[in-house]
Amino acid sequence: MKDLFIVANWKAHKTREEALTWLVEVKNSYHETDSQNANKTVVVCPPYPLIPIVEDFIIKNASPLHVGSQDVSVFETGAYTGEVPATTLEKFVKFCIIGHSERRQHFSEGFEIFSEKVANALGANILPVFCVQNEDTQIPNGVTVVAYEPIAAIGTGNPETPEDAEQIAKSIKEKNPEVKYVLYGGSVTDQNVGSFVNLPNINGVLIGGGSLEASEFIKILQAC
Length: 224
Hints:
alpha/beta, eight-stranded parallel beta barrel, 34% helix, TIM Barrel
């Protein structure tokens, strides 16, 4: 079996209580030692204030989940009110989403900023999951995990066809030799996830809305 990354992006959702309820439900259904889960790395990316809560739950309950961040500051430590630098995150997370389409759209971030964020994350031993919109999106040096998220598929209920996603994933790897894994993101459900992850060049999924309800996320894990 090939290695799969399944990344849950909660975006700006969930209270402390909702996060803990989600974690308990997923823990009771997902066990890394199960043979069907042996190849999966499952990452949960909550809003910043919930990261320590999620990490604490995972440690205390020996949960097989991993914690990720939805973003990281372009700055290092210093007088940058409201920013969260990689050196603050490194004790809590192993993964970090960088370059998400919503950062591009709502915050007008581009390649120069993303390159700094990737460098900061790698310097803190955090693995970037770098988001691209197509096969020609520029990818910073050092990125080994890419998430392909076509704009037309995000939150619309209209996913890319698996065949098209496979061709894009293959092209990304061919054009960027450092990239080892390409994930698919965009209206992922338990009904369609298998058609993506079973293809040779797709190494998992980045899930937004489909990760908010524990029951739906568990179905996606099982379908993988």
